[in-house]
Specification:
It holds the Pfam family UbiD. InterPro entries: UbiD, UbiD-like_C, UbiD-like_N, UbiD_Rift_dom. The protein has 464 residues and is α+β, with helices and mostly antiparallel strands. The chain folds into two domains: 296 residues, Pnp Oxidase, Chain A (Roll); 106 residues, UbiD C-terminal domain-like. It has twelve helices and 23 strands. The strands form five sheets. Strands 5, 6, 7, 8, 9, 10, 11, 14 and 17 form a nine-stranded antiparallel β-sheet that branches. It has a five-stranded mixed β-sheet with strand order 19-20-21-23-22, with helices on both faces. The longest helix is centred in the last third of the chain and has 20 residues. The structure holds flavin mononucleotide. The site of flavin mononucleotide has 19 residues, from strand 8, helix 5 and helix 8.
Protein backbone atom coordinates (compact mmCIF):
# COMPACT_ATOMS: atom_id res chain seq x y z
CA UNK A 1 0.00 0.00 0.00
CA UNK A 2 1.20 3.50 -0.85
CA UNK A 3 2.00 5.43 2.31
CA UNK A 4 1.46 9.16 2.37
CA UNK A 5 3.97 11.29 4.23
CA UNK A 6 1.90 13.02 6.94
CA UNK A 7 4.40 15.92 7.05
CA UNK A 8 4.00 16.81 3.37
CA UNK A 9 1.62 18.91 1.28
CA UNK A 10 0.24 15.60 -0.01
CA UNK A 11 -0.32 14.42 3.54
CA UNK A 12 -2.33 17.59 4.16
CA UNK A 13 -4.37 17.17 0.95
CA UNK A 14 -5.12 13.58 1.98
CA UNK A 15 -6.17 14.78 5.46
CA UNK A 16 -8.55 17.35 3.93
CA UNK A 17 -9.93 14.91 1.35
CA UNK A 18 -10.72 12.26 3.97
CA UNK A 19 -11.84 14.43 6.91
CA UNK A 20 -13.22 17.58 5.22
CA UNK A 21 -14.09 16.51 1.64
CA UNK A 22 -16.36 19.56 1.15
CA UNK A 23 -13.30 21.79 1.78
CA UNK A 24 -11.35 20.51 -1.24
CA UNK A 25 -12.26 21.85 -4.65
CA UNK A 26 -10.78 20.23 -7.75
CA UNK A 27 -11.19 22.35 -10.88
CA UNK A 28 -10.87 20.29 -14.05
CA UNK A 29 -11.70 23.05 -16.55
CA UNK A 30 -8.74 24.83 -18.11
CA UNK A 31 -7.42 27.96 -16.37
CA UNK A 32 -4.73 30.42 -17.32
CA UNK A 33 -1.92 31.37 -14.92
CA UNK A 34 -2.58 35.02 -15.85
CA UNK A 35 -4.97 36.40 -13.17
CA UNK A 36 -7.41 33.47 -13.29
CA UNK A 37 -6.32 31.34 -10.32
CA UNK A 38 -6.25 34.36 -8.00
CA UNK A 39 -9.60 35.80 -9.07
CA UNK A 40 -11.26 32.38 -8.68
CA UNK A 41 -10.20 32.22 -5.01
CA UNK A 42 -11.34 35.83 -4.40
CA UNK A 43 -14.75 34.93 -5.87
CA UNK A 44 -14.99 31.99 -3.46
CA UNK A 45 -14.08 34.37 -0.64
CA UNK A 46 -16.82 36.83 -1.69
CA UNK A 47 -19.24 33.91 -1.41
CA UNK A 48 -17.97 33.22 2.15
CA UNK A 49 -16.12 30.04 1.12
CA UNK A 50 -12.48 29.13 1.52
CA UNK A 51 -11.71 25.57 0.36
CA UNK A 52 -8.31 24.26 -0.71
CA UNK A 53 -8.32 24.55 -4.52
CA UNK A 54 -6.51 22.31 -7.01
CA UNK A 55 -6.41 23.60 -10.58
CA UNK A 56 -5.82 20.34 -12.45
CA UNK A 57 -5.71 21.74 -15.97
CA UNK A 58 -3.41 24.74 -16.34
CA UNK A 59 -3.07 26.10 -19.88
CA UNK A 60 0.39 25.39 -21.31
CA UNK A 61 1.51 23.29 -18.32
CA UNK A 62 1.18 19.67 -17.23
CA UNK A 63 1.75 20.53 -13.55
CA UNK A 64 -1.37 21.26 -11.44
CA UNK A 65 -1.54 24.31 -9.17
CA UNK A 66 -2.59 23.89 -5.52
CA UNK A 67 -3.68 27.02 -3.73
CA UNK A 68 -5.58 28.42 -0.73
CA UNK A 69 -4.24 25.72 1.60
CA UNK A 70 -4.03 28.21 4.48
CA UNK A 71 -7.26 30.14 3.98
CA UNK A 72 -9.40 28.26 6.49
CA UNK A 73 -9.09 28.38 10.31
CA UNK A 74 -10.90 25.07 10.73
CA UNK A 75 -8.43 23.24 8.49
CA UNK A 76 -5.39 24.86 10.10
CA UNK A 77 -6.73 24.05 13.58
CA UNK A 78 -7.32 20.44 12.50
CA UNK A 79 -3.61 20.18 11.59
CA UNK A 80 -2.90 20.80 15.29
CA UNK A 81 -5.79 18.53 16.34
CA UNK A 82 -7.76 21.35 18.03
CA UNK A 83 -10.92 23.42 17.53
CA UNK A 84 -10.51 26.80 15.76
CA UNK A 85 -10.99 28.77 19.03
CA UNK A 86 -7.98 26.99 20.60
CA UNK A 87 -5.55 27.38 17.73
CA UNK A 88 -3.50 30.33 19.10
CA UNK A 89 -2.96 28.60 22.43
CA UNK A 90 -2.10 25.27 20.79
CA UNK A 91 0.33 26.99 18.43
CA UNK A 92 1.89 28.93 21.34
CA UNK A 93 2.47 25.79 23.39
CA UNK A 94 3.69 23.52 20.61
CA UNK A 95 5.99 26.08 19.00
CA UNK A 96 8.01 26.14 22.23
CA UNK A 97 8.63 22.37 22.22
CA UNK A 98 11.60 22.20 19.90
CA UNK A 99 12.23 18.68 18.55
CA UNK A 100 15.54 17.77 16.83
CA UNK A 101 15.12 16.91 13.13
CA UNK A 102 15.56 13.52 11.47
CA UNK A 103 17.90 13.42 8.46
CA UNK A 104 16.71 10.90 5.85
CA UNK A 105 18.82 9.69 2.94
CA UNK A 106 16.67 10.93 0.04
CA UNK A 107 14.02 13.56 -0.59
CA UNK A 108 10.80 12.83 -2.49
CA UNK A 109 11.85 15.73 -4.75
CA UNK A 110 14.89 13.81 -6.01
CA UNK A 111 13.03 12.11 -8.88
CA UNK A 112 13.70 14.75 -11.55
CA UNK A 113 16.93 16.77 -11.59
CA UNK A 114 17.38 19.68 -14.01
CA UNK A 115 20.68 21.56 -14.07
CA UNK A 116 22.93 23.90 -16.03
CA UNK A 117 21.45 25.40 -19.20
CA UNK A 118 18.37 23.20 -18.88
CA UNK A 119 17.21 25.15 -15.83
CA UNK A 120 14.16 27.10 -17.00
CA UNK A 121 11.88 28.57 -14.37
CA UNK A 122 9.49 29.87 -17.02
CA UNK A 123 8.36 26.25 -17.50
CA UNK A 124 6.78 26.24 -14.02
CA UNK A 125 3.08 27.27 -13.82
CA UNK A 126 3.81 30.45 -11.86
CA UNK A 127 0.66 32.61 -11.54
CA UNK A 128 0.61 36.28 -12.46
CA UNK A 129 -1.79 37.30 -9.70
CA UNK A 130 -2.82 40.96 -10.08
CA UNK A 131 -2.74 43.07 -13.22
CA UNK A 132 -0.42 45.53 -11.44
CA UNK A 133 2.19 42.83 -10.65
CA UNK A 134 5.44 43.31 -12.52
CA UNK A 135 5.61 39.62 -13.52
CA UNK A 136 4.52 36.13 -12.40
CA UNK A 137 5.51 35.53 -8.77
CA UNK A 138 6.45 32.39 -6.83
CA UNK A 139 4.53 33.12 -3.61
CA UNK A 140 4.85 29.83 -1.71
CA UNK A 141 8.64 29.61 -1.87
CA UNK A 142 10.15 28.78 1.51
CA UNK A 143 13.67 30.13 1.27
CA UNK A 144 16.22 28.23 3.32
CA UNK A 145 19.80 29.23 4.08
CA UNK A 146 22.42 28.89 6.81
CA UNK A 147 23.79 31.70 8.95
CA UNK A 148 27.33 32.15 7.51
CA UNK A 149 28.59 32.80 11.04
CA UNK A 150 26.86 30.17 13.22
CA UNK A 151 25.74 27.62 10.61
CA UNK A 152 22.15 27.57 12.02
CA UNK A 153 19.58 27.48 9.22
CA UNK A 154 16.27 29.25 8.73
CA UNK A 155 13.23 28.97 6.48
CA UNK A 156 10.67 31.61 5.55
CA UNK A 157 8.40 32.92 2.79
CA UNK A 158 9.94 35.53 0.49
CA UNK A 159 8.21 36.73 -2.66
CA UNK A 160 10.06 35.77 -5.85
CA UNK A 161 9.56 37.64 -9.11
CA UNK A 162 10.19 35.69 -12.31
CA UNK A 163 12.92 37.59 -14.16
CA UNK A 164 14.33 34.98 -16.54
CA UNK A 165 15.15 31.32 -17.06
CA UNK A 166 17.39 31.20 -13.99
CA UNK A 167 16.80 34.54 -12.32
CA UNK A 168 14.33 35.65 -9.64
CA UNK A 169 13.97 38.98 -7.87
CA UNK A 170 13.64 38.43 -4.11
CA UNK A 171 12.51 40.80 -1.37
CA UNK A 172 13.81 40.25 2.17
CA UNK A 173 11.73 43.15 3.52
CA UNK A 174 10.62 41.46 6.75
CA UNK A 175 14.27 41.92 7.85
CA UNK A 176 14.47 38.87 10.07
CA UNK A 177 16.89 35.89 9.87
CA UNK A 178 17.28 35.67 6.08
CA UNK A 179 17.94 39.39 5.75
CA UNK A 180 20.57 39.19 8.49
CA UNK A 181 22.20 36.00 7.08
CA UNK A 182 22.48 37.68 3.67
CA UNK A 183 23.95 40.81 5.28
CA UNK A 184 26.54 38.66 7.12
CA UNK A 185 27.45 36.83 3.89
CA UNK A 186 27.90 40.17 2.12
CA UNK A 187 30.17 41.31 4.96
CA UNK A 188 32.37 38.30 4.11
CA UNK A 189 32.19 39.24 0.41
CA UNK A 190 30.11 36.13 -0.39
CA UNK A 191 26.76 35.37 -2.00
CA UNK A 192 24.41 33.36 0.24
CA UNK A 193 23.78 29.72 -0.85
CA UNK A 194 20.02 29.18 -0.59
CA UNK A 195 17.24 26.82 -1.63
CA UNK A 196 13.64 27.64 -2.49
CA UNK A 197 11.33 24.87 -1.34
CA UNK A 198 7.83 24.76 -2.86
CA UNK A 199 4.94 22.56 -1.70
CA UNK A 200 5.04 22.01 2.06
CA UNK A 201 2.57 21.17 4.83
CA UNK A 202 0.71 24.13 6.45
CA UNK A 203 2.42 23.39 9.79
CA UNK A 204 5.73 24.10 8.06
CA UNK A 205 4.37 27.47 6.97
CA UNK A 206 3.08 28.25 10.47
CA UNK A 207 6.39 27.31 12.11
CA UNK A 208 8.33 29.39 9.59
CA UNK A 209 6.55 32.51 10.89
CA UNK A 210 7.79 32.20 14.50
CA UNK A 211 9.86 35.29 15.38
CA UNK A 212 10.87 35.02 19.02
CA UNK A 213 13.06 31.99 19.64
CA UNK A 214 16.63 31.37 20.81
CA UNK A 215 19.28 31.96 18.10
CA UNK A 216 20.70 28.42 18.43
CA UNK A 217 17.33 26.80 17.60
CA UNK A 218 16.52 25.74 14.01
CA UNK A 219 13.10 26.71 12.62
CA UNK A 220 12.83 23.09 11.46
CA UNK A 221 12.96 22.08 15.15
CA UNK A 222 10.05 24.44 15.86
CA UNK A 223 8.13 22.86 12.96
CA UNK A 224 8.92 19.44 14.47
CA UNK A 225 7.34 20.72 17.72
CA UNK A 226 4.16 21.57 15.78
CA UNK A 227 4.09 18.07 14.22
CA UNK A 228 4.88 16.51 17.61
CA UNK A 229 7.65 14.42 16.01
CA UNK A 230 11.06 15.02 14.36
CA UNK A 231 10.70 16.91 11.07
CA UNK A 232 12.16 14.78 8.27
CA UNK A 233 14.78 16.58 6.18
CA UNK A 234 17.12 15.52 3.38
CA UNK A 235 20.29 17.14 2.08
CA UNK A 236 19.99 19.07 -1.15
CA UNK A 237 22.93 20.06 -3.29
CA UNK A 238 23.72 23.56 -2.17
CA UNK A 239 25.61 24.93 0.83
CA UNK A 240 25.14 21.78 2.91
CA UNK A 241 21.46 22.69 3.21
CA UNK A 242 18.79 20.36 4.54
CA UNK A 243 15.23 20.80 3.29
CA UNK A 244 11.90 19.04 3.99
CA UNK A 245 12.08 15.52 2.56
CA UNK A 246 8.41 15.50 1.52
CA UNK A 247 8.43 18.78 -0.47
CA UNK A 248 7.31 18.98 -4.10
CA UNK A 249 10.01 21.15 -5.72
CA UNK A 250 13.45 22.41 -4.63
CA UNK A 251 15.25 25.20 -6.50
CA UNK A 252 18.91 25.43 -5.53
CA UNK A 253 21.00 28.54 -6.02
CA UNK A 254 22.25 31.66 -4.27
CA UNK A 255 21.21 35.17 -3.28
CA UNK A 256 23.81 37.42 -4.86
CA UNK A 257 26.04 39.70 -2.79
CA UNK A 258 25.96 43.44 -3.47
CA UNK A 259 23.74 43.21 -6.55
CA UNK A 260 20.32 44.78 -6.78
CA UNK A 261 17.68 45.08 -9.48
CA UNK A 262 14.16 46.51 -9.54
CA UNK A 263 11.63 44.08 -8.02
CA UNK A 264 7.87 44.74 -7.87
CA UNK A 265 5.26 46.08 -7.89
CA UNK A 266 3.46 43.16 -6.29
CA UNK A 267 -0.06 42.88 -4.79
CA UNK A 268 0.72 42.66 -1.08
CA UNK A 269 -1.18 41.58 2.06
CA UNK A 270 -1.85 45.26 2.83
CA UNK A 271 -4.35 45.40 -0.05
CA UNK A 272 -2.04 47.72 -1.99
CA UNK A 273 0.46 47.32 -4.82
CA UNK A 274 3.85 47.29 -3.09
CA UNK A 275 6.76 49.02 -4.80
CA UNK A 276 9.01 48.71 -1.75
CA UNK A 277 11.53 45.90 -1.73
CA UNK A 278 15.10 45.06 -0.72
CA UNK A 279 15.60 44.28 -4.45
CA UNK A 280 17.87 41.24 -4.10
CA UNK A 281 18.57 38.66 -6.80
CA UNK A 282 18.37 34.85 -6.61
CA UNK A 283 20.20 32.84 -9.29
CA UNK A 284 18.87 29.29 -9.79
CA UNK A 285 21.44 26.54 -10.53
CA UNK A 286 19.45 23.33 -10.19
CA UNK A 287 15.79 22.29 -9.95
CA UNK A 288 14.74 19.01 -8.33
CA UNK A 289 11.17 17.81 -8.16
CA UNK A 290 8.79 14.93 -7.85
CA UNK A 291 7.84 13.38 -11.20
CA UNK A 292 4.20 14.35 -10.60
CA UNK A 293 4.91 17.54 -8.65
CA UNK A 294 2.20 19.97 -7.58
CA UNK A 295 2.99 23.66 -7.90
CA UNK A 296 1.88 25.34 -4.69
CA UNK A 297 1.01 29.03 -4.91
CA UNK A 298 -0.19 31.33 -2.11
CA UNK A 299 -2.98 33.66 -3.22
CA UNK A 300 -1.53 37.16 -2.90
CA UNK A 301 -3.15 40.48 -1.84
CA UNK A 302 -5.55 40.47 1.11
CA UNK A 303 -6.59 36.84 0.63
CA UNK A 304 -7.10 34.62 3.66
CA UNK A 305 -4.45 32.31 2.20
CA UNK A 306 -1.89 35.12 2.47
CA UNK A 307 -2.96 36.48 5.85
CA UNK A 308 -4.43 33.81 8.13
CA UNK A 309 -1.10 32.21 9.00
CA UNK A 310 0.21 35.63 10.06
CA UNK A 311 -2.89 36.17 12.22
CA UNK A 312 -2.52 32.85 14.04
CA UNK A 313 1.23 32.97 14.52
CA UNK A 314 1.08 36.58 15.80
CA UNK A 315 -1.75 35.72 18.17
CA UNK A 316 0.40 32.89 19.56
CA UNK A 317 3.57 35.00 19.75
CA UNK A 318 1.90 37.98 21.47
CA UNK A 319 0.14 35.65 23.93
CA UNK A 320 3.49 34.07 24.63
CA UNK A 321 5.16 37.40 25.36
CA UNK A 322 2.30 38.64 27.57
CA UNK A 323 1.69 35.47 29.58
CA UNK A 324 5.30 35.52 30.80
CA UNK A 325 4.60 38.68 32.79
CA UNK A 326 0.86 39.19 33.05
CA UNK A 327 -1.01 35.99 33.91
CA UNK A 328 -4.45 37.63 33.76
CA UNK A 329 -4.20 38.22 29.98
CA UNK A 330 -6.95 36.06 28.44
CA UNK A 331 -6.73 36.03 24.66
CA UNK A 332 -5.37 37.81 21.58
CA UNK A 333 -7.00 38.38 18.19
CA UNK A 334 -5.15 39.68 15.14
CA UNK A 335 -7.93 40.39 12.62
CA UNK A 336 -7.73 39.52 8.94
CA UNK A 337 -9.08 42.97 8.02
CA UNK A 338 -6.15 44.71 9.72
CA UNK A 339 -3.90 42.72 7.38
CA UNK A 340 -3.07 39.99 9.89
CA UNK A 341 -0.29 42.18 11.15
CA UNK A 342 -0.97 45.78 12.06
CA UNK A 343 -3.50 45.51 14.91
CA UNK A 344 -3.87 43.17 17.88
CA UNK A 345 -6.83 43.11 20.26
CA UNK A 346 -6.00 41.76 23.71
CA UNK A 347 -8.49 40.85 26.43
CA UNK A 348 -7.60 40.64 30.10
CA UNK A 349 -9.14 40.41 33.53
CA UNK A 350 -7.99 43.80 34.77
CA UNK A 351 -7.11 43.70 38.44
CA UNK A 352 -5.42 47.08 38.85
CA UNK A 353 -4.92 50.31 36.94
CA UNK A 354 -1.87 50.45 34.67
CA UNK A 355 -1.93 46.73 33.87
CA UNK A 356 -3.42 47.19 30.37
CA UNK A 357 -0.74 49.79 29.57
CA UNK A 358 1.98 47.37 30.69
CA UNK A 359 0.45 44.68 28.45
CA UNK A 360 0.12 46.98 25.44
CA UNK A 361 3.76 48.10 25.69
CA UNK A 362 4.85 44.49 25.78
CA UNK A 363 2.58 43.53 22.84
CA UNK A 364 3.78 46.50 20.77
CA UNK A 365 7.37 45.42 21.39
CA UNK A 366 6.83 41.78 20.40
CA UNK A 367 7.72 42.40 16.76
CA UNK A 368 7.89 45.16 14.19
CA UNK A 369 4.63 44.72 12.26
CA UNK A 370 2.22 45.10 15.22
CA UNK A 371 1.65 48.87 15.42
CA UNK A 372 -1.77 49.21 17.13
CA UNK A 373 -2.83 47.34 20.27
CA UNK A 374 -6.32 47.63 21.77
CA UNK A 375 -6.80 46.36 25.33
CA UNK A 376 -10.31 45.27 26.35
CA UNK A 377 -11.96 43.63 29.36
CA UNK A 378 -12.92 39.97 29.27
CA UNK A 379 -16.62 40.79 28.72
CA UNK A 380 -15.75 42.05 25.21
CA UNK A 381 -15.76 39.58 22.32
CA UNK A 382 -12.38 40.15 20.68
CA UNK A 383 -13.52 38.32 17.51
CA UNK A 384 -16.44 40.76 17.06
CA UNK A 385 -15.11 44.10 15.77
CA UNK A 386 -18.43 45.78 16.64
CA UNK A 387 -18.05 44.79 20.28
CA UNK A 388 -14.45 46.07 20.25
CA UNK A 389 -15.60 49.39 18.74
CA UNK A 390 -18.27 49.63 21.47
CA UNK A 391 -15.57 49.27 24.13
CA UNK A 392 -13.46 51.98 22.44
CA UNK A 393 -16.49 54.27 22.15
CA UNK A 394 -17.60 53.90 25.78
CA UNK A 395 -14.51 53.10 27.87
CA UNK A 396 -11.72 55.25 26.44
CA UNK A 397 -10.82 58.66 27.86
CA UNK A 398 -8.54 59.76 25.08
CA UNK A 399 -6.36 62.11 27.15
CA UNK A 400 -5.12 59.27 29.35
CA UNK A 401 -5.98 55.98 27.65
CA UNK A 402 -4.06 56.38 24.38
CA UNK A 403 -0.29 56.14 24.22
CA UNK A 404 1.85 56.82 21.17
CA UNK A 405 5.44 55.83 20.57
CA UNK A 406 6.90 57.63 17.54
CA UNK A 407 9.89 56.55 15.46
CA UNK A 408 9.66 52.77 15.93
CA UNK A 409 11.12 50.34 13.35
CA UNK A 410 8.26 48.95 11.29
CA UNK A 411 7.29 47.02 8.18
CA UNK A 412 8.84 48.35 4.98
CA UNK A 413 5.68 47.51 3.07
CA UNK A 414 3.34 49.24 5.53
CA UNK A 415 2.22 52.17 3.34
CA UNK A 416 2.20 54.46 6.41
CA UNK A 417 5.82 53.77 7.32
CA UNK A 418 8.29 56.61 6.65
CA UNK A 419 9.63 56.15 3.08
CA UNK A 420 13.24 56.76 4.17
CA UNK A 421 13.56 55.36 7.71
CA UNK A 422 10.69 52.81 7.55
CA UNK A 423 9.52 53.80 11.03
CA UNK A 424 5.96 54.35 12.30
CA UNK A 425 4.24 55.74 15.36
CA UNK A 426 2.97 52.79 17.38
CA UNK A 427 -0.25 53.30 19.33
CA UNK A 428 -1.90 51.56 22.27
CA UNK A 429 -5.56 52.12 23.18
CA UNK A 430 -6.67 51.10 26.65
CA UNK A 431 -10.37 50.35 26.16
CA UNK A 432 -10.78 48.61 29.52
CA UNK A 433 -13.27 50.13 31.95
CA UNK A 434 -11.72 52.17 34.78
CA UNK A 435 -11.58 50.36 38.13
CA UNK A 436 -13.02 53.45 39.89
CA UNK A 437 -16.17 52.80 41.93
CA UNK A 438 -19.39 53.82 40.25
CA UNK A 439 -18.23 53.52 36.60
CA UNK A 440 -21.12 52.72 34.24
CA UNK A 441 -22.54 49.19 34.44
CA UNK A 442 -22.91 47.20 31.22
CA UNK A 443 -26.44 46.12 30.31
CA UNK A 444 -26.89 42.37 30.19
CA UNK A 445 -29.66 39.89 29.46
CA UNK A 446 -29.36 36.63 31.39
CA UNK A 447 -29.32 33.18 29.73
CA UNK A 448 -32.69 32.37 31.37
CA UNK A 449 -34.21 35.57 29.97
CA UNK A 450 -32.87 34.73 26.52
CA UNK A 451 -34.28 31.20 26.65
CA UNK A 452 -37.67 32.56 27.70
CA UNK A 453 -37.53 35.17 24.89
CA UNK A 454 -36.78 32.45 22.32
CA UNK A 455 -39.74 30.38 23.43
CA UNK A 456 -42.04 33.45 23.17
CA UNK A 457 -40.79 34.11 19.62
CA UNK A 458 -41.09 30.45 18.61
CA UNK A 459 -44.66 30.31 19.90
CA UNK A 460 -45.36 33.24 17.53
CA UNK A 461 -43.97 31.01 14.73
CA UNK A 462 -40.92 33.24 14.22
CA UNK A 463 -37.87 31.11 13.60
CA UNK A 464 -34.51 32.56 14.71
C1 LIG B 1 2.51 34.36 2.47
C2 LIG B 1 3.66 35.14 3.06
C3 LIG B 1 4.53 35.84 2.23
C4 LIG B 1 5.61 36.52 2.74
N1 LIG B 1 6.45 37.20 1.90
C5 LIG B 1 7.56 37.81 2.39
C6 LIG B 1 8.47 38.46 1.51
O1 LIG B 1 8.27 38.58 0.30
N2 LIG B 1 9.59 39.00 2.04
C7 LIG B 1 9.85 38.95 3.38
O2 LIG B 1 10.89 39.45 3.81
N3 LIG B 1 9.00 38.35 4.24
C8 LIG B 1 7.86 37.78 3.77
N4 LIG B 1 6.99 37.16 4.63
C9 LIG B 1 7.29 37.11 6.06
C10 LIG B 1 8.42 36.14 6.35
O3 LIG B 1 8.22 34.90 5.71
C11 LIG B 1 8.56 35.90 7.85
O4 LIG B 1 8.87 37.13 8.47
C12 LIG B 1 9.61 34.86 8.17
O5 LIG B 1 9.61 34.65 9.56
C13 LIG B 1 10.99 35.30 7.71
O6 LIG B 1 11.87 34.24 7.88
P1 LIG B 1 13.40 34.47 8.20
O7 LIG B 1 13.49 34.75 9.68
O8 LIG B 1 14.04 33.19 7.81
O9 LIG B 1 13.86 35.64 7.41
C14 LIG B 1 5.85 36.51 4.14
C15 LIG B 1 4.97 35.82 4.97
C16 LIG B 1 3.87 35.15 4.45
C17 LIG B 1 2.92 34.43 5.37
Amino acid sequence: MLTIDNQSLRGFLHHVETRFPHELLRIKGQVDTHLETTSAVFELDHAGKSPVVIFENVAGHSMPIVTNIAGNRTLLASCLGVEPADIADAFRERSQKHIPCELVSKGAWDEVVIEGDDVDLTKLPIPHQFSVDAAPYITAGQVTARDPVTGIDTTGFHRLMLKGKNKLGISLHSRRRMYEFHRRAEEQGQSLPAAIVIGNHPLHYMGSMVYAYPPNVRKFEIIGGLFGEPYRLAKCGVGDLEVPAGAEIVIEGEILANEHEPEGPFGEFTGYASYRSTQNIFIAKRIRMRRDAYFHSVVAGMSRDHILISCITREGEILNALRKNIPNVKAVHVPHKTCGAFMAIVSMKKVSEGEPKMAMLSALGTELYTKYVVMVDEDVDIYDMEDVMWAIATRVRAEKDIIMVPGVKSAIIDPTSDPVTFTVTKMGIDATAPTEAGFAERLTISDEQRARARSILESANFSL
